[in-house]
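Exercise 7b. Backbone tokens:
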């Protein structure tokens, strides 16, 4: 189970390490699985390095980094000017996206898969509450009330989904649930639910298919009332990753994922780990269910470490 995955592999040390060969990381659920994979692979060639990782949301990652509680914070949204003014130094390490998620048992799923939902539809569901029943979305057969879920924790997924429909996370309506695993579980248990998840919590990286009980609502990007072939890229994790890479899926809610620290890292172990991620570590990104950075992006991010 995803919730179990978050409790194994690496545990947080709770504070920034003063030991040169130890790296402490906390923050975004979106980046957590990839960070764990990188740490596992890095330790194979650097067994003397200890890496402690915990997930708790992008807001926690930023707070922990700026307060000096950890060496690196995982952040899955843009870094604000206010945070930069407080000393936030950041580096992009991979890309992914937030996807609108529903229960695969939704009675009107056939209509939804054919027509999708427009940005304005999502706004009327998550912001204004103008759309309250499923039949109001497509005129289909499901007349049940829409049960809206949002994130209760300060997170990049909520911030980027809200930014896509024109607001901020605190403007999103719905029942609050904690973390990506909590959101996925809530949607899986309620056939009339809608929410949003980061890719890695929707798809199984082994089968490439969606987890049982979850489905993605296609976004009607050109708003012509039908999901065109060029908009239909949700069948597998490889399909959506390719769409992000080719910029077919809108950004936001696609975005870069960052590691953040209070000022440029002075710990050599931390700097070396980040350099490895941008160079050797990118080969693990696709198998981890994420999108590799483009070569020009890698070059610009490496310059930040010089």
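Sequence design result:
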């Amino acid at each position: 189970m995803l919730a179990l995955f978050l409790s194994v592999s690496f545990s947080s040390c709770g504070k920034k390490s003063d030991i040169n060969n130890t790296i402490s990381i906390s923050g975004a659920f979106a980046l957590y699985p990839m960070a764990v994979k990188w740490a596992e692979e890095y330790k194979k060639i650097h067994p003397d390095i200890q890496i402690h990782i915990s997930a708790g949301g992008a807001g926690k990652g930023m707070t922990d980094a700026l307060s000096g509680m950890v060496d690196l914070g995982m952040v899955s949204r843009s870094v604000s000017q206010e945070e930069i003014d407080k000393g936030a130094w950041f580096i992009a390490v991979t890309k992914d996206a937030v996807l609108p998620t529903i229960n695969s048992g939704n009675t009107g799923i056939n209509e939804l898969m054919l027509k999708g939902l427009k940005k304005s539809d999502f706004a009327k569901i998550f912001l204004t509450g103008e759309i309250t029943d499923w039949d109001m979305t497509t005129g289909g057969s499901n007349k049940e009330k829409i049960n809206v879920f949002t994130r209760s924790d300060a997170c990049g997924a909520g911030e980027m989904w809200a930014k896509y429909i024109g607001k901020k996370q605190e403007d999103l309506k719905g029942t609050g649930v904690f973390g990506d695993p909590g959101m996925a579980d809530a949607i899986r248990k309620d056939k009339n639910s809608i929410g949003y998840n980061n890719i890695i919590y929707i798809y199984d990286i082994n089968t490439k298919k969606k987890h049982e009980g979850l489905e993605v609502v296609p976004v009607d990007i050109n708003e012509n009332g039908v999901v065109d072939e060029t908009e239909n890229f949700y069948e597998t994790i490889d399909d959506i990753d390719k769409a992000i890479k080719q910029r077919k899926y809108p950004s936001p809610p696609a975005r870069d994922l960052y590691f953040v620290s209070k000022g440029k890292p002075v710990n050599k172990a931390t700097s070396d780990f980040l350099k490895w991620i941008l160079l050797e570590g990118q080969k693990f990104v696709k198998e981890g269910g994420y999108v590799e950075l483009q070569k020009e992006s890698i070059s610009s991010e490496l310059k930040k470490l010089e």
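Instructor comment: The beta strands are 22-27, 50-55, 72-75, 88-103, 147-151, 175-177, 193-198, 214-216, 254-262. The first helix runs from residue 2 to 5.
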